[in-house]
Amino acid sequence: MSRVPRELPVRVVQDPSRGFTRFPRRTAAAPDLVVGVDRLGHDLVQVRMHGPALPDLGSEHRLTLRRSPAEIEAVAARLRHVWKREFIDAQPLDERGRPAPGRTELPYATLVDLGGEPEEELYAAVEELAAQGSYLLFDLLLGGNPGHPDRSGGDGDGGLRIFRDILTFVLAGERPLRIRFDSELFIPWPMLALPRSAPTGGRGLDGLFRRFLGHRHRIEQTCGHYAGVRDRLEPRPPVVPVVSLNHDAAIDPLGRTRAAEVAAALARDTKFTERTTRAELLRALEEGRLDEQFMYFWCHGKFRTDDGQSPCLVVRLTDGGEIDAYTVRGRPPVNGSEDSFRPLVMLNACYAGVPSGADLAHLGRALIERGARGVIGPQIEMPQVFAAEYALAFVTRYLEGEETAGEIAHALARRFADRYRNPLGFAYALHGGMDERLERG
């Protein structure tokens, strides 16, 4: 009686050659400046900073401040709303309050190059963004309050003034720094700005752009979450980059954005995977086949509120199935190959709206906990036209393998501001991954 041959399952329990097939884990230089904000209670926060960019006082600069973490996050959420309301949704009107004739409808939402828009009008809009970004950092968090002399806790107003002056001096320096904001409070750091009195080295709109931290420095924000270190050794990088496109094919059916060019760039000279459904993504998560170097999401997003929780980002692909942080956490790989997941992830979601207190970083944290080297994405409801333009520029440069994610994000923030007079590049943030670079074997 003949038997039909069948494959037997094999599980490798010992790999003597592992040390010969992997490389030592890469090391990165420490940031020039690390700024931390920690919750200490319902009305206390701790701010701290250290790094070679600071005056050497022999220890970390640290203060305990009487501040409400809830108020700080509420004002941070308001700042994101201001960018949407005062800039993206701005509609030029004539003296009668009607749409101005000859002007593009919602120009800041539909145009990438704003060089043709009236300078005075554009300056006024961007100045409001800078004023609100400066208020959050230098007035609400680090400012004095005459009505509450004890707001600086046990360190006194003198310690707070010194802390603020040192930080302002370092951030206002002409040399771009590598900065890590390790904050337990979700604050859109690249969208914050120096005070109006700080020297920026320029006048007019150029000087205004230089007030933004995202223009001046290379920034990553960690929220206390770092890519997991599972092994002292790195896998050998592939000869051909491994990338994926996870998207909603129904976005932009008329081709008004450059989304198709982004997809083409991802598929060019790479090992390319395209996913359009939640089931495909879940299968890849469970089977441990996500050994990708770059993972791009182009999809719809919304914010769902669970009982007692801040609204958290949920994204949807073509089939409409919801993907959130718990989707990622609830799909551990069944074959134990969790160390194969280590991409840089770009989340380009077209949000249905950003509610107050929304945690945009929640899904990104889950991906980093899973092993992602970093997550980049917008911190506001980003117009589709700009989102696709930014993605094309980022993807093209990152796949070349010459620059780190932090270098590219900083260069693009400056490029869109200086060349196209558009500040929306400051609204993209890196959650970790500042030194991540695509490598080839």
Proportion of beta-strand residues: 15-25%
Helices, by number, come to: 13
In terms of quaternary structure, the protein is: single chain
Q: What is the average per-residue confidence, as pLDDT, rounded to a whole number?
A: 85
Largest sheet: 8 strands, mixed
SSE-based structural type = alpha/beta
Ends distance: 49 Å
Q: Please tally the β strands and state the result.
A: 15
Indicate the percent of residues in helices.
Answer: 25-40%
The secondary-structure element order is HEEEEHHHHEHHEEEHEHEEEHEHEHHE
Describe the global form: globular
Rg over C-alpha atoms, rounded to the nearest angstrom: 23 Å
Q: Extract low-pLDDT stretches.
A: 18-23, 146-155
Question: Which terms summarize this structure?
Answer:
about 450 residues; about 30% helix; globular; alpha/beta; 13 helices; single chain
